[in-house]
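Sequence, structure tokens reproduced for reference:
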Amino acid sequence: MKGLWILLLVVALVGCRAGALPGTPTGNSPVVTPASISPVQTPFAASPVATPSAVSSPPPLTSTITSVVGAGNTVYLPLVAVPVATPTPLPTPIPPATPTALPPPVPKPSFGVQVDPNTNDLSRVFRWVQGMGFGWIKVQVEWMVIEEQPGSYRWVELDRLVQLSNDFGFKLLLSVVDAPGWLRAEVGYNGPPHDPAEFGRFMGVLASHYAGKVTAYELWNEPNLQREWYGETLDPAAFVALTAAGSQAVRQADPQALILSAGLGVTGIDDGVSAIDDRRFLRESLQAGLAQWVDGIGVHPYGYANPPWERAADATHTRSAWNNHPSFFFLDTLEDYHAILVAAGVDAQLWPTEFGWPSIDGIRAADLAADHPYPYAMWLTEQEQADYLTTAARLMIERPWVGPFFVWNLNMSVTWGPDRPESLFSLIRPDTAFRPAYIALRVFQP
């Protein structure tokens, strides 16, 4: 009976294990209920329930003994080792992609870009230029901002720019525009002084202040357009008089500085009021003696939306408008100016002090209004902007009569935002991301 009692007790115990309620712990193997599962963990497998056959073929013993008391007799039963499933490890998080490093910039000492200095981080702007491998920087200087009152000069911001430019090792071109109001016949927009001698006076002060630190000066900007010559009659001879006064003063103050004539605006207009055709203006300026006062002839060969390799006389054109006049084509402007210089017997290089192509792509999402200054910017993609700029650079390099050239512009989209018309020409987006043109120019091989 004793043996039978023991056997019955064992069977009863096993039966209790087999009949345990769900969620009730059995032995040392916890059952994990849904409420106890962490949402970020893989659930453990439920513990298998022992069957009677497990008594006759027990799994390996553990080192723990469970004591069961029954009918005054202590019976020692082996503890059944219930294997617990190893949690499936969570997948290793994929780290965010590391931005692909740009190739190092290819040095291009004769390449330049116009920068907008209206920023509190001018060093960053210069690092962007450095990142393209360019050797030149162009900045437009407003005379009215420097000479706030007659004989009173504000140098602080320009001093810092000139010093940083020298620290970075750039050659610096300053384009000087906009006479103070008290020196002008009419105040409004941008205009020259009524007396060219006043320009000579200022240029002498400017060149003396920066002697040995500024490589070149461009004397005025687009004097064949009324918006840059406001208050005076458009006149090539008057422009040459202004150039002569500025040139003589610079040569006396800083003989090493280079002097460039103002680049002319390309508009296709020749009404004598809003504009004089740039080709005619250049011819008449040379007849008035322009070449003797300068080391290089400024030119602004904008291509509107036309590819740089197209000419006005081509049978077909990529674009459906702004394609019926040579002034709308980059290569026509370069070749026409060179032919004019040759015909005048002038041996001087052309300096493209501004050129570029605008694109709305990557700058702003809204369509441009019909009266926008550059409505054709909607026709060009960022990639076309990049392709046109690099092709234009190649075309200029192939022409030994072209000197250093300056892309317009680097960063106006950053300083003024996407709604400023000039921002569409920028090489950098408003959020400071590089446009394809920036990267293409960075790796360009001269």
In short: Residues 108-442 form a domain with the TIM Barrel fold (CATH 3.20.20.80). The longest strand covers residues 61-70. DSSP finds twelve helices and twelve strands in the chain. Residues 40 and 93 are 13 Å apart (CA to CA).
